[in-house]
Amino acid sequence: MGGRATLNSVAAAANVSRQTVSNVLNSPELVSQDTRERVQAAIDQLGYRPHTAARQLRTARSQIIGLRLKPARGGVLDQFLHSLTAAAERHDHRIMLFAANDDEEETHAYADLIASVGVDAFVLTGTHHGDLRTRWLLDRGLPFVTFGRPWGAEDEHPWVDVDGATGTRMATDHLVHHGHRRIAFVGWPGGSEIGDDRRAGWAAGLAAAGIDARPQVSVFDGVAGGRAAAAELLDGPAPTAFVCASDSLAFGVVAELRERGLRPGADTSVIGFDDTPTAEVLGLSSVAQPITEVAAECVRHLRAVLSQEPKPTAVLLTPRLMLRST
């Protein structure tokens, strides 16, 4: 079809009024689900793109979502940023990145961005007990969603997360099924909510198999930490398999195994967590987080909140076990 699609051409294609199309775009709660779907199908078919500046004037919204950019710690947050940006753009929103050194500084950035740019909502990552960022936003009634659970009963808010315990349980069950009985865990020091969650899945898998021996070492994240942990464990009664809280720890375990003449995947099995691009390239078995789905759910939550639809429920997604050469 020639020419730029317009509100009128979408209305004609969907056999509805121009106002109904406008409601679908700006106040979808006023339109029935069947009509919304019919109008959305016409929008997709015609390739209609709303005039962002005009919409901002009508709705008093900036169409901007704020996200704190943290120092790179592997590929997961990079993947999330890309997926979140793509998901937001499909609904005519844009992601605005900002830097902050800590949670308190992040809340100051919220206030500045709301005052200067009129940011509509925020996406938070790295949630933890007593998270002052979520408390700050809740106290002011500001829209947000977190990639990560509240980890405490004190704050209830929209969130999307990946079930880390289920992921490490899947890895442990797989190793048990293949005959391993001395399965070590290499994780982070206690108090890391994500790390403790992943450790719990490993422990539950061993308990279900009736395995009492539970060698484990807690170190700070990174290849060097994983290698040091593996060296400590291998100097005792050597594990036949390792479940790790991250891919970077698993890379360290693999390096130490090879240094000792052991073949990862043949002599000793290793499974990481996060399924980073490097893991795929190097053939590391890993637990994959459904990052694209996490990002899509975050945007869905924010759109519902901004449209004053019923409060979305929390979403806990199941990871996948990706088996490779290790």
Automatic annotation (TrEMBL):
The keyword Chloroplast does not apply. Residues 5-59 form the HTH lacI-type domain. Keywords: DNA-binding, Transcription, Transcription regulation. SUPFAM superfamilies: lambda repressor-like DNA-binding domains (SSF47413), Periplasmic binding protein-like I (SSF53822). It comes from the Bacteria. It holds the Pfam family LacI. GO terms for molecular function: DNA binding. This is DNA-binding LacI/PurR family transcriptional regulator.
